[in-house]
Amino acid sequence: MRLLDRYIARQVFVSAMFAVAIIIIILVLGNVFKEILRELAKRPDLDLIFVLKFIALVIPISLSLAIPFSFLTAILLTFGRLSADSEFISMRMAGLNMWRICLPVGVLAIFFTSICAIVNLSVTPWAKTEMEGMKASLINLIKREPMLLFPDGQVMADLPGHLVYAKKENGILKEFQMIKMEGDLPHILAIAEQAEVAVDMEREDPEMALTMKNVNLVTRGGDGDFLSSSHPFFMEEATAGVPLSQFSLAGNDVRDQPENISLGRLIQKTRDPELEPAMQATYRTELSMRMAFSLSCITFGLIGVPLGVTAQRRESTAGFVFSMIIAVSYYVMLTLAALQRTNEAAYPHLLVWIPNILFISLGIFLFWRLSRR
After folding, report:
1. Tens digits of per-residue pLDDT, 214-238?
2. Is residue 111 over pLDDT 90?
3. Residue 293, CB half-sphere, CA atoms under 13 Å: how many?
4. Which neighbouring-strand residues pair with 178?
């Protein structure tokens, strides 16, 4: 029996680990690398350690989704293969019932649930807080080294309400072009031979100053569109200032956001009588969401075994398609329930448990039918 348990457990565990690696590397880190490489191409002065730390923080955030989905895929593939090879017939002829055959899967489900609980309840909120802190650090770095904000020879839209194009040369912006927007319409167009960037931290409201040389300015008039009502004029030197407060994180402490808060503080928030009902419901829903995600491994284990056996397919494609349908259905239902997080009257902290209840009930029913065959 121990040999059989080790065989089934090894097949499921190895398949799950391969699936986790593939999901993280291809589906998650692939997009992250693409975005980071794009930023590095625009801003080669960014510190490589900063970039690598950002990538490392993405992995634990991805695990909360990758582990349950990978576990489900591994079960469907393993049990589909065992069923197609008639190995279940041999096990049943040896006097083993389905509950005993699936005991290794139950142990693995508890193991992966524990991992997901640690990731969802503690690691992911910490990683999200660290990522927000890195964004704030990047903003502080830009305040100290404002040239980092401007990519070389590309349009930059990170400056609020502005579009900027320039080439960087010896700490100066050459062939400088800037459009100041009002809503979706251009308001001022500035074309300068060069521009120097400096940050004045002595002001009460510190700002980033763009000192332009030999600049042609075109401003929109009061009536008509930009082209028909514009007024062009030339200046040997002009300065445009952008308050650094526009680069802040809107003044919100990311540590108090429900998705970033630690488990201990989250529990305290759910019991805080001074909070508004809508905010208290949000914190309760966040706590329930983390716990519901953690139990998804057990949920997928219960429903994955009977589906894997009855599918009787050796192909990996069939197992992957089944897992995609189940996982997407589960997460869509969970997301729809979470959308009611501020509606205290709807009891959103209870609604998020409905997908688990439905899928566990369906899994137990399918398992019961399978065990009676």
Report:
1. 888 887 766 666 666 677 788 888 8
2. yes
3. 27
4. 164, 190
